[in-house]
Amino acid sequence: MSLNKELSIVIPCFNEGASVARFERELLPVLSALGRSYEVLLVDDGSIDGSAQSMAELSRQHPEIKVLTHQHNRGLGCALRSAFAAASGDWIAVLDADLTFHPRQLKALLEKQTATGADLVSGSPFLSAQGMRDVSWIRRLPSLAINAFYRGLFDPGFSSYTPIFRLYGSNALKSIHLSSKGFEINAEIAVRFWLARRSLAEIPAVLETRQEGCSKLDRWRELKSHARLILNLLGESRNAN
Predict the structure, then answer these.
(1) Is the pLDDT of residue 169 over 70?
(2) Neighbours of 6 (CB within 10 A)
(3) CATH number assigned to the domain comprising residue 226
(4) Which end of the chain is more exposed for a tag (fewer CB within 10 A), N or C?
């Protein structure tokens, strides 16, 4: 009998002790209600705030939760790549540790995949006026700009290159080579799926504001990472053609 789960939930965590406390009451009930076998992979990416202890305790109480540990902070891209390699699910869904894309929206991702057969389903806050209603313009404008730039270079019909909230077919995801270490990994995955002619779909999703802790995003550093990634992807695209 296969030990694979139907669904792997991946959550990268770096100094997210306050957010981890929400998982038991806001994440696990939603997953149980989906009616699918699942596992939760939490990646402790070198946390120094007590997150490791909180995740370990949660794992002891709930055997469906597994904790992967990086001894030092390696970045979002590395955290996701570690989790993808360890995931046993037929489908892999990714959430932010701060639950700014709330788990209640997972059901819509799964329904969209069933309806379309897509290899990647993304939750896009850009598809409705409500998607970023609580997000400040200081955060919103750079996000709108970088996603518009990706659309101009790659798939113009795909709006959500940078958001993390997605559902991936495990076989499709594990068939592509990923190299990003930071937040740009989400864009790398989307473009590589598109270059590989995998099917992409989206749903409108709401991005809420963070309730605890602070964002780990360094915008200038990530802009430089996106610039390097785009140059590499454009070069690969030209060579493939």
Answers:
(1) yes
(2) 15
(3) 3.90.550.10
(4) N
